[in-house]
Design a protein that fits this description.
single chain, 250 residues, alpha+beta, four-stranded antiparallel β-sheet, 6 helices, binds zinc ion
Length: 250
Amino acid sequence: MAARDDLLEKAEALDDEALGASGAKQDELRKRAAGLRVQALGEKPYPVLVCSACFSRTGWLDENGVCETDAMRRLQDSSGGWVDIRDDRPRYEDGPSPVGRRVARALGLGRGRDRAREWLMWIAPGETGPVDPEEGWETEAPLSFERPAPSGPHLLVHFDTRSLRFEDGAWRPADTTRGGKLRRLVPREFPASLATDALAEAWSDFKEEVAAHNRAVWAAEAERREADAAAEEERRHARELESGTSELLR
Ligand SMILES: [Zn+2]
């Protein structure tokens, strides 16, 4: 783990250095940083390639050696800014409408159990979030979807995250979460034709990165809450002592 953190630290330093450089020198620094990140990820059964334009890791490169984002950007530039790229991302299912939910609640239908079940959809209690369902809690949920590559006959499998907030007993899409952006090493796109085992391992690695992110967010929050509780306990104790003293002085 230390070796891995070391590699990532070096990669970051190179990227910082690249910010102050330009041209070929800048590309060289960013390429070296990318190489260190690939090394940090380690040997994998799925492809870990580096885009020659943005130097991010990807499991798929087009015939010009660029990732999907850059291939799309180039396509857009060459077509005068308009290109029909289908977004086949699955929309997050909202479940019953808010009104339907309210009616169900008023009737007392399946209250506690549904709420708990909904919570468990995205939270490992006490690990990636609070033990009990909590209004307003936010989490990052991994999702995968397929869409055609910008060029060629490939179908690409994508990994992404969706920010969710627990509201009114259900998960709703949110713009951001308190944990901020997910730091990841696993590529986010692969050819759908990749061997199933390799694809499954990439997905499991990606999900672990998301879970690690959520665990870190909860660990920090749990620590904060414990400190708050300890401070409150101390205040209560101090108040007791004070009133005890004034009793004596009476
Ligand atoms: Zn790129």
